[in-house]
Every structure is written in structure tokens, then in C-alpha cells.
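Please check this today:
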Amino acid sequence: MTGIRLLVGTRKGAFILTSDGKREKWKVDGPHFAGWEIYHVKGSPVDPNRLYASQTSAWFGQIIQRSDDGGKTWETPGSSPEELKGPEGSPKGESNKFVYDGIPGTHMWYDG
């Protein structure tokens, strides 16, 4: 039997629940981003270890987080502040970049 993974977003963080195919016992990992509202947690159809989480707060706004190791570590994808500066140190007019990795195939992506 294959394993089951359930990705849960709540007002108190994200949780990753795992079980075997029988689903009799579950392991709960989290909260990830404790205290943040997590609207979406999604696994990549291309790479099962890649996860995305959409977190929000009234102060910081929306932030996308990405994990490439099944939720053990997380990072904000995009350019670092140093990469966004022009030769004179002023902003180049670019912002956080979010680029899809791989070929989506039969999956339809919609952002917006």
C-alpha cells in the first residue's frame, strides 16, 4: 500500500498529516507557520516533496512559502533584495518572482 498525505491549512498554521494506506493511525506534523493563517497548502504534481503554502497576516499581507523536502524546511521563492537592485542601488522595478518548475502537463494552473 502507498502512503497518504493530507495537507491542512488553518487559522493557526499548516499541518501535514501522514498515514499508511489503511488510514487507521495518523502522524501530525505541525504547526508550520504557527500563528499565521494558511489559506492553501498544495503538493506539486511534478515533485511529491515540493509543497507550497499561502500564508497571510493583516500586517505582512500574503506570502508564498515553498518546501522542497516535504515540509521539513520552508523558504520564500523569488529574488533576494540584493538581486532586485540596479547598478546604482535603486530598485529595478521587479518584485517577488514566482516561476513554475517543470511541465504542468494535463494540470491547469490559475493564479489570480
About this structure: The mean pLDDT is 81. The radius of gyration is 17 Å. Residues 1-101 form one domain. The first strand starts at residue 4 and ends at 10.
